[in-house]
Amino acid sequence: MRRDTVVPLIDVHAHLTDHSFRDLPEVLRRARAAGVKKIIISITDPAEFGRAQEILSMDPGYLHLTVGFDPTNLSEEKYAQFKELVGLGGIAGIGEVGLDHFYVRDHSQRALQEAFFRSSIRLAIERDLPLVVHSRSAGHESLEVLYSEGAERALMHAFDGKSGDALAAAKRGFFFSIPTSVIHSEQKQKLARLVPLESLMLETDSPVLAPVHGERNEPANLILGARKIAEIKHVKVEEVVRVTVANAERFFRL
Fold first, then answer.
1. What share of the chain is helix, strand, coil (3-state, %, to 5)?
2. CATH number of 236's domain
3. Which of 146, 155, 171, 196 is the most buried (most CB within 10 A)?
């Protein structure tokens, strides 16, 4: 697949602390060469924070960080550590946090997961930080929790819920980040088609959700997602980039 078009992109969600990125300097070089002007790194475990700080120091101003908590992690101790990290400040947002009903099936465990999610929403509101939301197999439920807690600044990352729910959330000012798997995912293609461009951002979710099944994903692939969205919406790729970058800069206050 071509990635030769160089335009100023922002990858709003990438897990660069993943152990698969042993070649991180080259990954960042390729990202810059592909026109990615900023990358927002997401961590989902307090244990990743040290590595995230090392990565941020590699390219200050280019790399930003959101601190999250894996919804499948049901440890009270780990959640307390997550809250401590948020309290340190200097982050672009809270996330990813949310609900995961794909892996968590037990009702008591789902109740604890929701309690962590609600606490995270309140923390974001208290600190005036944006939320990046994980909602695997729980799109409707996640949105209902966000509404009930009064969340206004929310980005639904790699949303796999119903398009009708997404449209309703977009009308309330929520955003949706479309991953590079939009190349082959019919669900993500439908989401990109129906949700207004003014409510979209771009993400890779590296190292997963690659444009090609089975390959490691990386931020340099972001242009491929932008091109696909442009094709779906029958607009120029430059328009997709312009709007999604403006959305990301405003949402994260970059």
1. 50, 20, 35
2. 3.20.20.140
3. 155
